[in-house]
Amino acid sequence: MKKRNWQKICLELTVFIMAVLSSIALLGNATIPTSQEVEKLTGGLANPLLRFVAKLRIAIPDNGLLGGLTLFALWLLYRHHFLLKKEKGKYFSKTCIIFACIFSVVMVTGMSFKKYDSFAFVIQNKFQIIYSSAFFIGFAILFYTLLEMFFCYIDEKSLDSNVKYSILFLDKHPFIGPFCFLLVCWLPYWLAYFPGSAMWDAFRQFNYYFGIEKWSDHHPVFSTIIYGGLMQLGRMIHSDNMGIFLCALFQHVLFGGSIALGLYYMKKWSVPQNIRIVALLFFGLCPIVAFWPHSVMKDVAFDALILIYSILVLDFIHKTNKGKCTYKNLLCIGVSGMLASLMRHNGIYIVVASLAFLACLKMKKKARIKVALGAMLMMVCTTITSDVLIDAAGAVEGSSGLALSVPFQQTARYVKEHGEEVTEEEREVINAVLNYDRLAERYDPDISDPIKGTYKDDDSKLSAYIKIWFQMFLKHPVTYLEATISNSYSYFYPNGESTTKPLVYNFITGDTRINTGYFDIHYTDQQGEMRNFLSGMLYVMKKTPGVGLICHMGTYTQLLLLLIALGIYKQRIYLVIGCMPAILNFLSCVASPVNGYLRYFLPNVLMIPILIGWFVSEICVAKNNIS
C-alpha cells in the first residue's frame, strides 16, 4: 500500500514538474543575464550556486496571475493525459517524440534569433545551455502531449461528407459561388485602394516594357509582357490609372479563380461542408489574403498559378490512389506548372522538384515513366519559351549572382565576426565578386539586398568564390548557419516577423529611383480614411491574442509540419508527397533575400487550408466510407 502511494506521489510530482517546465517555456523570455546584473544580486560573491540562482532570478519573469493560470491549465492537461487517460503498457509514439522535438527546436531557435540574431540564448555559456534546455524540454512535453491527443482524435474520428443542409452558392455552384463570394469580400479593399496599389517591382516591369529602363530577365519577360501589355491597353483606353485597374482586375479574377478552384476540388474530394465553409471564410475575410488582389505585382499572379498547380497535384494523387489518373490530369499539371515557372523564376524549381517526388507514388511503371517524361518536357518547354521571349524582347539575362543570397549573407557575417581570420587570398577572391570593404558595415541579418548591392556583376568569378566560400564554411560552420537562420527564422517561428518589409503592400511607391514620373498613378480617394482604417484593423488583428497567429508565417509552417507528421504517423507517404509544393516554396523562402516576407510566403498561406481539407478527405472521410 505504501509503495503504491509513493508511486502515485512520484507520478503526481513528475506531472507537476512537467507543467512547470512547459509554463516557463510558454511564458519565459529569451533572456541572457549580464555580469553586472549578477554582480548586483550576489554582492560580488563567487559562489557558483549563488550565482546560478541569481541568474534564474533575472531570467525567469514574474507572470503573476497569468503564470498561475497557465501552470494550472497545463497541470490539468498533463494529469488528464498521462495519469488518468493513458492506457497502462501503451508505448510512447516515436512519431510524436520526433516531431515534438522538431517543434521544440523551432520554438527555442526562433526565440533566440528574434532577440539576438544568433544562438546566443542557447549556447552562450553553461547557464544558457541549462536554461534553454529547460525551454526545449517544456516545449517538447507540450507538443508531444498535443500531438498524441491529436493523433488519437484522428484515429477515432470518421467524418461524414454528406451535406446536412445545402448552401446554394457553395454546393449547387461549387466554383462560381465561392468565386463571387470572394470578389464581394475583397471589394471594400479594392474600392479603398482604387484603382490599385503598385509597388517597386510593378514599376520596374512597367519601365522595362515602355523602354524607360533596359529590359532585363531579372523580372521574367513573360510576366513583364502581361503586366506591361495591360498597362498599355489601359493607357490607350483612358489613362495610367485605367492600366492599373486592368492589372488589378486581372489579378482579382486569377487570384479568386484559383482559390475557388481549390474549394471546387475540396467538394469533389468529399471534404465535409463545415471545413469548406471555414476555408471560404478564411480566404474571403482574412486581411492577409484580401489585401493582395489589388496590389499589382507578378507575385500575385504567380501565387494563383502555383496554387492551381498544387491543387491539380493533389487531385492527381487522389485519382492515382483510385486508379483513375489520365493524360488530361498530367497535361493540366504541366500547363499550370509551366505558366507558374514563366511568371516567376523560382517556380521552375518548385514544379520540377515536386514532379520528381510525384514519380515516387505507388503506380505502374508506365505511369511513373509518363510522369518523369512529362516533367522533363515541361522543363524543356519552359526553358525554350523563356529563351524565345528574352530574344524577342531584346532583354538582358539576369545575373546568376543575384540568386546567391544565402552564400553572400554567410560571407558578410563571416567577415563581420571573423574578419581578422580572413587571409589575403580569401579577401582577393571575395573582393572580385563583392565589395569586401563594405560587407561588414552593410550586413543586415534580416535582408541580403545591402550585400547583393555590392555584387560586381561578374559571374565568371563565382566558381573561385564558391571554393573560398566552402573553405571558410569549414572554419566557422556555426557562423554560416546563424547567417541563414537570421535571414529566414520568421518563416518557421510563429512569433517572427519582418523588420524590413511590410506585411502587405497597400501603397503606391513614390521612390523616384523607380517611379520616375512617367506614369501618373494615384488613388482616386485622396483622403485615404478607409485605407487607414483597413490597414489599422489588419495590425489590430495581428496583435490580438490567438487571432493574430494567422498573420504570422510561422503558424502556417507549423501547420504544414503537423500535416507531415500526420502523414508519417498514418504511414501514408503519398500524403507527404502532396505537401511537396508547400515544402519547396518554404525552402525557396529560406533561400530568399528577405526574412519573413509574406509576398514570398503567400502561396503557403493559400495552400494550407486546401491541404487540410485534402488530408481530412484522405484520412477521415475515406475511413468513414470504408466502415
Task: Tell me about this structure.
The protein is mainly α and 627 residues long. The protein is 70% helix and 1% strand. It is built from 29 helices and two strands. The longest helix is centred in the first third of the chain and has 31 residues. It is globular and about 90 Å long. The mean pLDDT is 90.
Largest sheet: 2 strands, parallel
Task: Give me the side-by-side strand order of the main sheet.
Answer: 1-2
The tally of beta strands, per DSSP, is 2
| Cα-based radius of gyration, to the nearest Å | 27 Å
Per DSSP, the total helix count is 29
Helix content: over 70%
Structural class, by secondary structure, is mainly alpha
Low-confidence stretches: none
Cα distance, first to last residue?
A: 46 Å
Mean pLDDT: 90
Percent in strands: under 5%
Molecular shape: globular
Can you give keywords for this protein?
single chain; 627 residues; mainly alpha; two-stranded parallel ribbon; 29 helices; 2 strands
Short description:
By secondary structure, this protein is mainly alpha-helical. The protein has helices at residues 2-27, 35-42, 48-59, 64-85, 94-116, 120-123, 126-156, 168-172, 176-192, 200-209, 221-237, 240-268, 273-285, 287-290, 298-321, 327-343, 347-358, 365-393, 405-418, 424-433, 436-442, 449-452, 462-475, 477-486, 529-543, 553-569, 573-578, 580-590, 598-626, and strands at 197-198, 295-296. Strands 1-2 form a two-stranded parallel ribbon.
